[in-house]
Amino acid sequence: MPPTLLSPPATSEEIADYTPMTQVTLPPLKNSGLAPLIGKTQAELVDLFIEMGHPRFRAEQVHHWLYVKCVQSFDEMLNLSKGFRQHLAERFQIGTLQIASKQISEDGTVKYLFQCADGNVIESVLMYFEERGSYALCVSTQVGCAINCSFCATGKMGLKRHLSASEIVEQYVQVQADSGKEIRNVVYMGQGEPLHNYENTVKSLRILNESCEVGMRRITVSTSGLVDHIDKLAEEEMPLTLALSLHAPNNEIRSRIMPINKRWPLETLIPSLERYLASTNRRLTMEYIMIDGINDQPEHAHQLGQLIQHLKCNINLIPYNPIAKDLPRAVDYKRSSNQAIRTFMMILLDRYHKKVTVRLERGVDIDAACGQLANRFQADKEVLPV
Ligand code: SAH
Ligand code: SF4
């Protein structure tokens, strides 16, 4: 990514001006400094255990406890001797994330705030889909994000750092353990741009699939459109669902609300999606935020229909979820009216024969949209260090 696209984090004056709405007290930092086992593939665990002089089946047992049973301590690995459990606990830790807070929405959505070993906070959102009777987890891939979309709370933070594959997978393992729910779908739509943290994202996808047994077809990766990495992802032979945050029907609007469009404009993005579809034989999801007066007019629906008519894709309209007005560099956008959303949808359905859904707004009462709680907390933390 060219440096011109990296947004600076908010200045300390901007942060000092910001009044946090959610107060979260962090637990004391628990960082043993030992290497985490979560984040290692089964093959890596086997190599590690053989190197330490243990038989292969020990690695397979530990692998099962880590990713299928989702235990939180070596003491729970009951088919290992006490001595061996102690031996492991002296050399490794299971993972590095601590649950800092948990907010439960009226609609049942649960937002987890995790503290990383270095004190950074990230979030994951557990959602229940009644119609499917199953749970989906939204995971983060970075602390903050460099892409700086104008409508996004995470973008306001700038990028602090990438998450490791271990930290991405551990969100799943911990939520699974804490909630006791069987999480069948995972969406990479939390904080951060998954394809900017490409290697760790891909490794985490493989572990979720091979070790946690989440079907690849039940995983969605959402991207703002990093063309070079979309091409790379197409070669990975992972039949996941790619969701593209398009959000605008032309370069003029897209560059205005998503600076990434200046680096990868539509004339480079659309051909990369064509290549992705040709080599994966999958269907894309086009995400389109509905912002009042910016991108939600009937002429925009027609432009969008013409732009993507030839692509095998469904369209997901997302009513804009207002971010706190007092966030540093916040913009004054409003959610489109239901009437505007309905008209937009009907044009795409009737004239362009696209399958269109409108995203359910989840956890609105707990700010469960992209980056909102962690962002508030991040700002809060700079003022009141713990
Ligand atoms: N960085 C990736 C994935 C994380 S964002 C991406 O941009 O695709 C997940 C989705 O939430 C994206 O479609 C993003 O555009 C959307 N989003 C961000 N801020 C939002 C807001 N305030 N209201 C509604 N959707 C938002
Ligand atoms: Fe980053 Fe996605 Fe937010 Fe854009 S919408 S700033 S890419 S997290």
What is the gist of this entry?
This protein is of the alpha/beta class and 386 residues long. 35% of the residues lie in helices and 19% in strands.
Report the mean per-residue pLDDT as an integer. Answer: 88
Bound molecules: S-adenosyl-L-homocysteine, iron/sulfur cluster
The total of helices stands at 13
The appropriate CATH architecture of the largest domain is Alpha-Beta Barrel
Number of strands: 14
Q: Any idea what the shape is? A: globular
Strand order of the largest sheet: 3-4-5-6-9-10-11-12-13-14
Distance between the termini: 33 Å
Helical fraction equals 25-40%
Unreliable stretches, pLDDT < 50, 5 or more residues? 1-21, 375-386
Give the strand content.
Answer: 15-25%
CATH fold type of the largest domain: TIM Barrel
Report the sheet with the most strands, covering strand number, pairing sense and barrel closure: 10 strands, mixed
Using only C-alpha atoms, the radius of gyration works out to 21 Å
CATH class of the largest domain: Alpha Beta
Number of domains: 2
Kindly describe this structure:
By secondary structure, this protein is α/β, with parallel strands linked by helices. The chain folds into two domains: 12-28 and 96-385, Aldolase class I (TIM Barrel), CATH 3.20.20; 35-93, DNA polymerase, domain 1 (Orthogonal Bundle). The protein contains 13 helices and 14 strands. The strands form three sheets. It has a ten-stranded mixed sheet with strand order 3-4-5-6-9-10-11-12-13-14, with helices on both faces. Strand 3 (98-104) and strand 4 (110-115) form a beta hairpin. Helix 5 runs parallel beside helix 6 (198-210), helix 7 packs parallel to helix 10 and helix 11 (298-308) runs parallel beside helix 12. The radius of gyration is 21 Å and the shape is globular. Bound molecules: S-adenosyl-L-homocysteine and iron/sulfur cluster (SF4). S-adenosyl-L-homocysteine is lined by residues 151-152, 189, 193, 222-224, 245, 287, 289, 318, 320-321, 323, 369-370.
